[in-house]
Specification:
- The chain is of the alpha/beta class.
- It has 2 domains: about 130 residues, Rossmann fold; about 180 residues, NAD(P)-binding Rossmann-like Domain (Rossmann fold, 3-Layer(aba) Sandwich), CATH 3.40.50.720.
- It is built from 14 helices and 12 strands.
- It has a 7-stranded parallel sheet, with helices on both faces.
- The structure holds (2R)-2,3-dihydroxypropanoic acid.
């Protein structure tokens, strides 16, 4: 099929960097609204498309793919792909792609922004000033937790977890990690000690989550795990909301079982504005923006487009989740 006969969907507005290469090669159907399409609207949008750039807000499962027999490539604009039933896609010969690496640094930087903001109570301090309470310097005013020299526990020492660890070296921290897949060369080079999860939870001043959402990591941090953490500990989540049991976290923050939390991701997502996590003074919630820099989102768009085009051409994409199972070897 000649390229300009392809039809591709883009399920939201994305940076131009991802659209230009597609425009030259295919007809584009783009979802024009700020909010994601409903499942029915998504199906209509993807109808008769050869490929699509999808977002983590689009749920792609087997039954939907069955109704879209023309669709051959699903190129997710995210490193995470828990919104896609990959085995179902593989079974149907649909290539699934994602955007690893290009967002690693931005996500690690954002993790540190959250960690430092929670440790030093930046949102509370800002509110204090805005509310007109700042009358004088105070020895006991808005005391936070020391980061330098503290212990950080990284749950999931993959690409992003490793970048978080590298930054922790700059704060002279003791670095613990939990990950079933161990990279001993990295651990040695950056002074990381692998420990069991329970040990990480009980010894860390900061626990930061960087696992993919899978059946094994769903609700990895629940009441028992929160109970093991120090009462002065801060939990950071920049992975996926359902890795943490939301009600258990609310309870732990309200009861003082842990000191604070800083969340890029939540369950559900978005959280309603009147949710306890949004309103607790010891919890920071940001709207899943860890990768949201101009430069990173351009790179994600570019990679998603290149993945899609390669897949449509029957070539191996720069980043795919199931190319080994779908493409001829
Ligand atoms: C991802 O890529 O999976 C993030 O959650 C959004 O950048």
């Amino acid at each position: 099929m000649s390229p300009n006969q392809w039809t591709v969907a883009i399920t939201r507005e994305i940076p131009e960097a991802g659209i230009t290469p597609l425009r030259e090669a295919a007809a584009i159907k783009q979802w024009p609204h700020d909010l994601p399409p409903t499942p029915e609207q998504l199906e209509t949008l993807l109808q008769d498309c050869d490929g699509a750039i999808t977002l983590l807000t689009d749920s792609i499962g087997g039954p939907l793919l069955d109704r879209l027999p023309k669709l051959r490539v699903v190129s997710n604009f995210a490193v995470g792909f828990d919104n896609i039933d990959v085995p179902a896609a593989t079974e149907r010969g649909v290539l699934v792609c994602n955007t690893p690496d290009v967002l690693t640094a931005a996500t690690a930087d954002a993790t540190w922004s959250l960690l430092l903001a929670a440790a030093r109570r930046i949102p509370e301090s800002r509110q204090y000033v805005r509310d007109g309470h700042w009358k004088t310097w105070g020895p006991l005013l808005l005391l936070g937790q020391e980061v330098t020299g503290a212990t950080i526990g990284i749950v999931g020492l993959g690409r992003i977890g490793k970048e978080v660890a590298k930054r922790a070296r700059g704060f002279a921290m003791r670095i613990l990690a939990f990950d079933p897949y161990q990279d001993s060369a990295f651990a040695e080079q950056y002074g990381v000690t692998y420990v069991p999860l329970d040990q990480l939870l009980s010894e860390s001043d900061f626990v930061t989550l960087h696992v993919a959402l899978t059946p094994e990591t769903h609700h990895l941090i629940g009441p028992d795990q929160l109970r093991r953490m120090k009462s002065t500990a801060i939990l950071v989540n920049a992975s996926r909301g359902p890795v943490v049991v939301t009600d258990a976290l609310v309870e732990a923050l309200q009861s003082g079982e842990i000191l604070a939390a800083a969340l890029d991701v939540t369950d559900p997502e978005p959280l309603p504005a009147d949710h306890p996590l949004v309103n607790l003074p010891n919890c920071i919630v940001v709207p899943h923006t860890a990768s949201a820099t101009v430069q990173t989102r351009d790179r994600m768009a570019d990679l998603a487009a290149r993945n899609l085009l390669a897949g449509l051409k029957g070539e191996r994409p720069p980043a795919s989740v199931n190319a080994d199972d779908v493409l001829p070897s």
